[in-house]
Amino acid sequence: MEMWQTRQRDSRYRLARRRLYRIANNYGLWLCVILVILLYVYQVYPKRWIYPMLYGKPFTRQLTVSHSDRYKDVVAPEFEYKRGGYTYSLLPRTKYAVTARVAFVDNHNTIFNKFFRERSQVRYNNLAPQDFLLLNGDMARSEIFKKFKFKHKKRTTQVLCKSAKYKKSFMSAYMDEEKAKKDNKKYNDCRQYIKEEEYGNYQTIPATEHVNKALSMIVKGDIVYLEGYLVDVPAMQLQTETRKNQVNENYKANALNPGISFILYTTRVIVNNYIYE
Description:
The chain is of the alpha+beta class. It has helices at about 1-40, 45-55, 110-115, 120-125, 140-145, 175-190, 210-215; strands spanning about 55-60, 70-75, 80-85, 85-105, 130-135, 150-155, 155-160, 200-205, 225-230, 260-270, 275. The strands form two sheets. The chain has a five-stranded mixed β-barrel. Strands 6-7 form a two-stranded antiparallel ribbon.
């Protein structure tokens, strides 16, 4: 009896192996293709495991989201910056640092973006390959952060209320007065927490390749420290937003949104307990 059970078990193992071999022969190529696609789509996650060992230095202190950013206007000459075969001239305006929660990431330096999106902006996408929406102060608190949703288009980001229905046209408006009141209540509960001084859209210029690697692996929800200089790009008629001039100066916004986003020449990044310089 025991011998018979052993033979039955061995027979099942052989059958299982044959099935696995058959699947590998029939679907092995497709499995490899799917794996490559997944690695391409989610390439940021292997980076988060590999890059700290190659480019970062351990940082032992825990990052805490700041209540406000730190800035100091500077007077400095333009300097030359080279990246990806292009040469740029950057004009420092403000020495700047912020510790914030990442609400949105848009990577403009992917193969898809290079060939299919915003091809007219290749030069600027090379200069500032990532956009980040960063929140500090109360907006970054977990219980408040979850009230928001974020939209990003043409390098500008909107902060919206997750639970509210936004009217896109007269056809999308509520016809039911009771539903409208309920939605307005949700909207007002969220809207009170949206403060202009606690969020900003950052277009980051990496000062070094180590900084570039750090910026490329940041994801939504990370607590990050960014340090560097807010800069203008005079040859491209791009002006950075600064905390001191954004209210007083009237910038005309075009597709690249000069004066609306922080153009940050980034010299230091801290993320996931590693520092990159």
